[in-house]
UniProtKB/TrEMBL annotation:
One of its GO terms (molecular function) is methyltransferase activity. Pfam families: Methyltransf_11. The keyword Methyltransferase applies. PANTHER family: HYPOTHETICAL LOC100005854, ZGC:194242. This is Methyltransferase domain-containing protein. Keywords: Methyltransferase, Transferase.
Length: 165
């Protein structure tokens, strides 16, 4: 999983234009490879993540132990449909190859929107192995209240981008 999602996650991170002072949330962080990348980019901000798998939380915490210890990263076991964060907390939110396994996609998107700051950006990245079709994503994001929804395709990856305006 780490190798399969790493390239896509790096590309999605570039599309999000993550800045040093951003607060960033990764939904479904798996083994924590993208969290590790984000923690290097967000030198003055904060990185948080949720994953429903106890095993993935343990792996990601081990991989990111130093930045968790210094307080710049917070990884929790939780589900996207009940995010353990306050309203208007994040500048950027991303999910790589996880939306297709969320219990309720519409509810998950609404919950993500709740924790995003006004004008924050969301990126949902997928590899060709995800099983997620790229058609219908912009409509799904618009129905959840996001704006400027678009899909970008690159090689074996695609990404749905949207803003919380």
């Amino acid at each position: 999983m780490a190798r399969t999602n790493e390239g896509c996650g790096a590309w999605v991170t570039e599309l999000l234009e993550v800045e040093p002072n951003d607060t960033v949330l990764e939904v479904g962080f798996g083994p924590g490879v993208i969290v590790q990348r984000l923690s290097r980019l967000v030198s003055e901000g904060h990185v948080a993540g949720i994953d429903p798998s106890r095993e993935m939380v343990e792996q990601a915490r081990a991989r990111n132990a130093a930045v968790i210890k210094d307080g710049s990263v917070d990884l929790r076991r939780a589900s996207v449909d009940r995010l353990p964060f306050d309203n208007n907390s994040f500048d950027k939110v991303l999910a790589i190859n996880s939306m297709q396994v969320w219990p309720d996609v519409a509810r998950g998107l609404r919950e993500i929107r709740r924790v995003m700051k006004p004008s924050a950006k969301l990126a949902l990245g997928f590899t060709i192995y995800s099983g997620q079709p790229n058609n219908g994503l912009t409509e799904l994001l618009t129905a959840a209240g996001f704006t400027d929804a678009s899909v970008v395709i690159r090689d074996q990856w695609f990404c749905a981008l949207a803003a919380n305006v």
